[in-house]
Specification:
Radius of gyration: 26 Å
Number of helices: 7
Strand content: 25-35%
Shape: elongated
Strand order of the largest sheet: 9-10-11-12-18-17-16-15
Largest sheet: 8 strands, antiparallel
Distance between the termini: 71 Å
Helix content: 10-25%
Number of strands: 18
Mean pLDDT: 80
Length: about 350
């Protein structure tokens, strides 16, 4: 065999050893028991709910373990960063394929391999997903979990005392409860909805959201339009500012005497309108999409109520988070994004 072929084979061997990322070990339990245990594995980053398994023709069964919302300092991944990458990265999802194959009725081979990663929108250009590797920490956690029989409880072993106490109906709704309620809503795109791109939104937010502090003059300059000046007893100079632009768009800017400062951008039209930063679209972005998009900022999704008038209130889905020094609130008035509020105080 000539030198070039030797080098080529050596390269292939090195590639497989470095990027194959497979971890194999043996568990002295039946395949079905091992597969069920893997399907119930959880740590601080696992996605809620058991992942669906798949079976292959040779009797091997596989499932996927999904870790969500990991920052670059988390120990499960060795990120391959591109040149001039930002200091902090955020992984929306990382997926490990976990396969089990029966060797005999009481012995099972387990194989774990990093399948794919999904950086969030802020990190995509900084990370080479194909060359990112697993550190092996998750593989070790799963192996230890499977070998520790004491932590495995079958459904027949569970008692009422092992479940949390019932939640009082009057208690505050938790984030997970609100998420579950919201995800029951059908957020599929509305058929035949017209789409448009707003040039004005692109001008307003060409560099991202306008962060606070700011002034009314900033919005007038960007919109090339003078505002309506409206009365407000508790506002600085007893006034706040409002701009209507294009069809069904409105911005207000308010500075209160108690140092609260905010602006609100609202769209009340029927079209799906893009032009917002971070890939957001009025009447196009759903609550769960926005929660996941801003997970690096610990975005919270929940349902609340707002007053329509003195006698009427309605349910409202919101996503809130803090970016830089500003607090962001996204509101979903028709199951899709319809309003953005940026404030210097928590809402």
């Amino acid at each position: 065999m000539n030198t070039k072929k030797h080098l080529f084979l050596l390269y292939i061997c090195l590639f497989i050893n470095v990027f194959g990322q497979k971890k194999d070990f043996i568990i002295n339990q039946n395949q079905e028991v091992v597969f069920e245990k893997i399907s119930e594995f959880q740590n601080d980053f696992t996605e809620n709910g058991i992942q669906e398994g798949i079976a292959s023709l040779n009797g091997e069964k596989s499932t996927f373990i999904v870790l969500k919302n990991m920052r670059d300092q988390d120990p499960y991944l060795m990120l391959k960063l591109n040149k001039n990458a930002k200091a902090e990265q955020f992984i929306q999802k990382a997926i490990w394929k976990t396969s089990v194959k029966s060797i005999n009725p009481s012995t099972t081979k387990v194989t774990i391999e990093l399948e794919s990663i999904l950086p969030d929108d802020f990190s995509k250009k900084d990370i080479d997903s194909k060359l990112t590797k697993s550190t092996g920490k998750l593989e070790k956690e799963i192996e230890a979990y499977l070998k520790d029989n004491s932590i495995y409880i079958t459904s027949e072993d569970k008692t009422d005392n092992e479940y949390p106490e019932a939640i009082d109906a009057s208690s505050e709704v938790t984030d997970s409860m609100a998420t579950a309620m919201t995800e029951q809503i059908d957020f599929e795109n509305i058929p035949n909805r017209k789409k448009a791109v707003s040039t004005t939104l692109k001008i307003l937010f060409g560099k991202g959201l306008v962060f606070l502090p700011t002034t009314d003059k900033k919005f007038s300059q960007l919109l090339k339009k003078s505002p309506k000046i409206l009365s407000c007893e508790d506002c600085v100079n007893k006034e706040f500012y409002s701009w209507d632009f294009e069809d069904y768009f409105n911005i207000i800017y308010v500075k209160m005497n108690d140092n609260l400062e905010y602006y609100s951008l609202q769209y009340s039209g029927e079209k799906e309108v893009s032009g917002l930063p971070y890939g957001l679209a009025f009447n196009g972005s759903s609550p769960t999409e926005c929660r996941d998009k801003f997970a690096r900022y610990d975005a919270q999704l929940y349902q609340t109520t707002v007053n329509v008038d003195e006698n009427t209130s309605k349910a409202l889905t919101v996503v809130t988070f803090k970016m830089n020094t500003s607090y962001i609130r996204l509101e979903f008035g028709n199951e899709y994004l319809t309003k953005i509020i940026v404030s210097n105080q928590e809402q």
